[in-house]
Amino acid sequence: MLQRPSRLTFEGPDSVRKRGRSFQLRREVEAMNFVQRNTSIPIPTVLEVHFDDRSYVGSFCNECQDSNLPDTYDIRFTHADLSWENILVDVRTGKVNAILDWEMAGFWPEWWEYRKAVFGCRSQPWWTELLKKVIIGYVRETNIDMDLEMF
């Protein structure tokens, strides 16, 4: 069976190569630079960037306009793809060494980080329990967004 190359390749003890669509890589590099300049969150340093000509076509669901989510939430800068796969932890000390995968980061409604953290297979029971301790839960908003996602 032919396997797709991994998006992340560890090229050495301190080096990770990330592959993806150019628009996602641009967003991720911009987000990582923003976070490095404005926070103390541990972010890998971008050593080099290579963009290709890949593109994508987005779709818009007109039926999803009325989502029952009011437009009154605070807008916050968020990682928007927080999961255990994206958090590098030193197994000896428990210290977070880096947070990876910033291409979806941006300014989103305050409930968005929770919604994306429980997305798909990430909602393992142990992960969900951990999230309850470290992040505000927006269960109603998550359920509405998951319903809309089906369209």
Give an account of the 3D structure:
With 151 residues, the chain is of the alpha+beta class. It has a two-stranded antiparallel ribbon with strand order 1-2. A two-stranded antiparallel ribbon has the order 3-6. β4 and β5 form a beta hairpin. The protein contains four helices and six strands; from the N terminus they run ββαββββααα. The two termini are 32 Å apart.
SSE blueprint and pairings:
Elements: E1 8-12, E2 15-18, H1 22-38, E3 75-78, E4 87-89, E5 96-99, E6 106-109, H2 112-117, H3 125-134, H4 139-149
Antiparallel strand pairs: 1-2, 3-6, 4-5
The Cα radius of gyration reads 17 Å
Largest sheet: 2 strands, antiparallel
Q: Give the uncertain stretches in residue-range form.
A: 53-66
Shape: globular
Tally of helical runs: 4
Instruction: Give the strand line-up of the largest sheet.
Output: 1-2
Number of strands: 6
InterPro entries: AGP_Transferase (IPR051678), Aminoglycoside_PTrfase (IPR002575), Kinase-like_dom_sf (IPR011009)
Domain Aminoglycoside phosphotransferase: 65-118
Organism: Tolypocladium ophioglossoides (strain CBS 100239)
Protein name: Aminoglycoside phosphotransferase domain-containing protein
Keyword list:
Aminoglycoside_PTrfase, 151 residues, 2 domains, Kinase-like_dom_sf, globular, single chain, two-stranded antiparallel ribbon, alpha+beta
Compact overview of the structure:
The chain has 151 residues and is of the alpha+beta class. The chain has helices at 22-38, 112-117, 125-134, 139-149; strands spanning 8-12, 15-18, 75-78, 87-89, 96-99, 106-109. It folds into 2 domains: 1-51 and 75-106, no CATH class; 109-151, no CATH class.
